[in-house]
């Protein structure tokens, strides 16, 4: 047990899906998992373990932003022994070729955050996805006919930039596809502790075209993302 998690040893499966939103964790557990049991509810940051296609898998909410995710992920790895961590998030679009509802597989995650910089001195560490998880997700998305893009994401500490897309500077011109708030530290912690991580995000609002997803589309798009993540998780 930790200050943020009252699950007991063995309550989590080795593979976990990580949404930011606790209600998304509940929805995933109730919609996709069999025999899902609540294993954590400290601060209402809900965590569940059940099975998918007969294989054990967990889902744990991480809250919003890198400091919040870092706490849950640090503990999931170091206290509970998890080995495969797949973020299932939403993101904004920074490139018009990414359409709302498309998935972004974050091959890498740039960041403005000191949480990634703190140990690297003069170096700019490049947080990257586990290649096996990334390849499996891309192969499965293709086989399922799910629209996806693999590339660079930015994990920003700032949701409300004063100047909209201008706030992301030259990142869009360097091929960065989308913006969310957690992947970079997830990848950094996975590298530090020798486990596998991938962030998959559904693009819900495009900062270039101003297009946004509506409520009905959101549900079906998140279904594509969660199904893909579960298929990858049970084979990891
Ligand atoms: O939908 P989630 O997983 O929370 O992800 C995105 O949504 C939140 C901001 O609205 C941030 O956490 C961002 O990363
Ligand atoms: O972090 C996020 C998530 C969704 N949309 C954004 O613009 N930013």
UniProtKB/TrEMBL annotation:
Catalytic residue list: 205
Pfam family, one: PNP_UDP_1
Binding site for phosphate: 20, 24, 43, 87-90
InterPro entries membership: DeoD-type, Nucleoside_phosphorylase_d, Nucleoside_phosphorylase_sf
EC number per UniProt: 2.4.2.1
Domain (Nucleoside phosphorylase) ranges: 16-220
Gene3D superfamilies in the record: Nucleoside phosphorylase domain
Signal sequence annotation: none
Highest taxon above the source species: Bacteria
Residues with site note (Important for catalytic activity): 218
Binding site for a purine D-ribonucleoside: 4, 180-182, 204-205
Oligomeric and partner information: Homohexamer; trimer of homodimers.
Function: Catalyzes the reversible phosphorolytic breakdown of the N-glycosidic bond in the beta-(deoxy)ribonucleoside molecules, with the formation of the corresponding free purine bases and pentose-1-phosphate.
Name under which the protein is recorded: Purine nucleoside phosphorylase DeoD-type
Organism: Devosia epidermidihirudinis
